[in-house]
Amino acid sequence: MIDDNPNKVLLEDEILEDRLSQLPFDILVNILNLLTLDEAARTSVLSHKWKHLWKYTTILDFDASGVLMNVTEDTMEEDRNWYIYWVNEVLSSHRALYIDEFRINFDLDVSYESYITNWIYSAISRKVKRFELSFHPAVSWQTLPEIYTFPQVVYESLKTDIGLAHVKSLRSLIFDSVNITGEMLEFFIYNCPYLDQLDVACSHNLLGLKVVGSELKLKYLDIVFCNNLEELELSCPSLLSFKYFGPIIKFTITNVPQLQDVSIGGGVGGHGLGNGRVLGPIVNYFCQLKNLELFVELNEESVQFPKCELPALRHLTFQICARRCSSFLDLTCMLKSCPFLQKLTLKMQVSQYSSEVRSRHQFPKHFHRHLKEVDMIGFSGNPVELELARYLLENATALEQLLLEPWVFESEATIEAAREEARKLEEAILPPGVKLYIH
Amino acid sequence: MASSSSSSSCSSSSEKKITLKSSDGEALNVEKNVALEFEPAKGFLEDNSEEADDEAIVVPLPNVSAAVLSELIPYVKQRLELSAKPVQKKLIKAFDDQFTRHLSDDKLGELMLAANYLGVNYLLDVLCDVTADRIKNKSVEYVREFLGIQNDFTPEEEAELRAQCPWAFEGVDQD
């Protein structure tokens, strides 16, 4: 049970006398909150007066991205044990009664469940505001790891009066590679009056989710790679941003007057455009969007774009997955529906271009008068890409910069070939006023 | 010290001048809207609101020196002008960066104490950021020096503390 004493009472007798001595406790803690946990803990050896201060930080961000970047299958067990040890050591020293943030991000599977469950209790009992559990695998395991499941027993304890009082502080919830059900997520959505962000990735237990209510505060909702999801219902006037990546689902969306950022797609068999994909009823809200990211599958057939106007759109991103595709010019149909577009980003993953690419020298004219910036990520110098680049250079009359960037994972020879094509383009037709960036 | 402007110029509150008296006894004239940004001055002015002539009021600020006040006043004044316009956050950030970039470590500490005492929270937040930036990934010795802390541990005590959280001392830059 949590008592009502604020954290600072505990240190009242430890008055600091150095340069910042007269600053109140919570300001010093604010400074420590801006440091990493390691940096904050190192202040314990500054002097007696600083010995315990770091234990009252209100941000517990267990960030080990440096370690995660370098893990291999061989070091994994040791690294996991180190991470568990680190989190447990910090938690055993930590004394703040309330915390703003608790963030776990490491490759941990179900075999660590007893530790993870304790961490959830630790965070929730400190009335955490921003809570993240991310267990995304850092290496590609040969057999898929069994992921942690949000325990029923924790869920039951949250439903009690004490549990409800604790979760009320939640503002942001992020679950990545945690099996959590729609019922549990709805519990948080409907019982946390300040919840404004919910991200769920790779939960196999999420089958359906209903986010419906005029009094909800939710602004950001991300549902990605929940491959067993069948149904999603959204009716939430506060929603600003929505991202869905995954299989085709039964999807209803109404009453989202503030929605302005949308990202929608999926892998093979998912939402998006092209090859029989469905965008669904979200098209009805396209007219109010400022930012849109769309997954597009291109092949030999042409893509049918939904009939829609996007007068508010400023930034359009296409995630292109293409096989045997012979032209990207179909994409420009969609550009015509966005008269005030300022930025276009293309992320191109092309397994193979058609061998019969006939590069056109005359393009249909349609001026894009507000388009200032185009990024082509995954540029390989193929004629299909060059054709689109030339179309944009001719028709985007206000263009200021064009970025051509090969994927970093490509071979040096492929990257050099792409750069060579980019330089040719620069010499041949670059209009004055346009800066070309080749990465 | 009386304001040099004529006593008839009291058309808007922003033109009214208030006198602040620093810890070292100096009197500084500031616009009333700037003075109102300082919590103790605001409280003092409210308590003395029956005083007809603002220019006769002298607000004592016994915890802030004239040197610090004369840095704070132009900052608050410009910051007020910026926030009155519909400017982007980026501009305010650039203004804050400009202000903090050349602050010495000593001055940074003095300003923090003053901003805290005067309740200028937006400045205090900025100064906290700057302080954290300056001690990020630095050695214990550096941070001690920076904050002017006297090490009162025996070497044995310090070694013991370090041993209590060895994870915190891996991979520290040498200043």
Automatic annotation (TrEMBL), chain A:
<dbReference type="InterPro" id="IPR032675">
    <property type="entry name" value="LRR_dom_sf"/>
</dbReference>
<dbReference type="InterPro" id="IPR001810">
    <property type="entry name" value="F-box_dom"/>
</dbReference>
<dbReference type="InterPro" id="IPR036047">
    <property type="entry name" value="F-box-like_dom_sf"/>
</dbReference>
<dbReference type="Pfam" id="PF00646">
    <property type="entry name" value="F-box"/>
</dbReference>
<dbReference type="InterPro" id="IPR053772">
    <property type="entry name" value="At1g61320/At1g61330-like"/>
</dbReference>
<dbReference type="Pfam" id="PF23622">
    <property type="entry name" value="LRR_At1g61320_AtMIF1"/>
</dbReference>
<dbReference type="InterPro" id="IPR053781">
    <property type="entry name" value="F-box_AtFBL13-like"/>
</dbReference>
<feature type="domain" description="F-box">
    <location>
        <begin position="17"/>
        <end position="53"/>
    </location>
</feature>
<dbReference type="InterPro" id="IPR055357">
    <property type="entry name" value="LRR_At1g61320_AtMIF1"/>
</dbReference>
<protein>
    <recommendedName>
        <fullName>F-box domain-containing protein</fullName>
    </recommendedName>
</protein>
Automatic annotation (TrEMBL), chain B:
<feature type="domain" description="SKP1 component dimerisation">
    <location>
        <begin position="122"/>
        <end position="168"/>
    </location>
</feature>
<dbReference type="GO" id="GO:0016567">
    <property type="term" value="P:protein ubiquitination"/>
</dbReference>
<comment type="similarity">
    <text>Belongs to the SKP1 family.</text>
</comment>
<protein>
    <recommendedName>
        <fullName>SKP1-like protein</fullName>
    </recommendedName>
</protein>
<feature type="compositionally biased region" description="Low complexity">
    <location>
        <begin position="1"/>
        <end position="13"/>
    </location>
</feature>
<keyword id="KW-0833">Ubl conjugation pathway</keyword>
<dbReference type="InterPro" id="IPR016072">
    <property type="entry name" value="Skp1_comp_dimer"/>
</dbReference>
<dbReference type="Pfam" id="PF01466">
    <property type="entry name" value="Skp1"/>
</dbReference>
<dbReference type="Pfam" id="PF03931">
    <property type="entry name" value="Skp1_POZ"/>
</dbReference>
<feature type="region of interest" description="Disordered">
    <location>
        <begin position="1"/>
        <end position="22"/>
    </location>
</feature>
<dbReference type="InterPro" id="IPR016897">
    <property type="entry name" value="SKP1"/>
</dbReference>
<comment type="function">
    <text>Involved in ubiquitination and subsequent proteasomal degradation of target proteins. Together with CUL1, RBX1 and a F-box protein, it forms a SCF E3 ubiquitin ligase complex. The functional specificity of this complex depends on the type of F-box protein. In the SCF complex, it serves as an adapter that links the F-box protein to CUL1.</text>
</comment>
<dbReference type="InterPro" id="IPR001232">
    <property type="entry name" value="SKP1-like"/>
</dbReference>
<dbReference type="InterPro" id="IPR036296">
    <property type="entry name" value="SKP1-like_dim_sf"/>
</dbReference>
<dbReference type="GO" id="GO:0009867">
    <property type="term" value="P:jasmonic acid mediated signaling pathway"/>
</dbReference>
<feature type="domain" description="SKP1 component POZ">
    <location>
        <begin position="16"/>
        <end position="79"/>
    </location>
</feature>
<comment type="subunit">
    <text>Part of a SCF (SKP1-cullin-F-box) protein ligase complex.</text>
</comment>
<comment type="pathway">
    <text>Protein modification; protein ubiquitination.</text>
</comment>
<dbReference type="InterPro" id="IPR016073">
    <property type="entry name" value="Skp1_comp_POZ"/>
</dbReference>
<dbReference type="InterPro" id="IPR011333">
    <property type="entry name" value="SKP1/BTB/POZ_sf"/>
</dbReference>
<dbReference type="GO" id="GO:0006511">
    <property type="term" value="P:ubiquitin-dependent protein catabolic process"/>
</dbReference>
